[in-house]
């Protein structure tokens, strides 16, 4: 498996390929909205994204945000962690997380953080197996102009 896979830092020009995977994680959000939000994310200096490729096909991605937090120091916050749903549970996620953790250590990060959807039980088991612990709850309030 490893001989066929490569890791690549993605850029704005990869957005269309990224959106194919992002739709799998966010099927209820309109494509145009996802496209616009991704465009805004690329404008931030704190955002970067890595891709996992099998041959030349993008099969996974991990968006990353850099933050410094009091409780964890310089943290790489993982966002939109996706392995193509057609090939999940085949070891690609673990391979990708090993790459990200190694990259983060080499680049001076002290911790990894992430959020996952409450109803995504499959991801919870995976993250526990990768050494993550639940530290709290992420609360959100959607603001509207109505």
From TrEMBL:
Source organism, top-level taxon: Bacteria
Gene3D superfamilies to which the protein is assigned, alphabetical: 3.40.630.30
Leader sequence residues: none
InterPro entries tied to this protein: Acyl_CoA_acyltransferase, GNAT_dom
Keyword match Transferase: yes
Keywords tagged on the record: Transferase
Entry-linked PROSITE patterns: GNAT
GO molecular function term, any single one: acyltransferase activity, transferring groups other than amino-acyl groups
Annotated N-acetyltransferase domain residues: 5-146
Protein name as catalogued: Acetyltransferase (GNAT) family protein
Organism: Flagellimonas pacifica
